[in-house]
Known about the structure:
The protein is mainly α.
Amino acid sequence: xxxxxxxLWGSLTIFFVGLWLVVRIILEYFGIISDGNDRTxxxxxxxxxxxxxxxx
Length: 56
């Protein structure tokens, strides 16, 4: 029983960490948040390229 709870807790933790990563990348992409270190994700470069291409 305890092993099952630990496994479930570990799975939920990994799920929510992954979910937070996706949400954070989306928020960084749209410029809502910034950690000041855009080089690690490349979000700033993607945003600039998108603006240069002027997609409509």
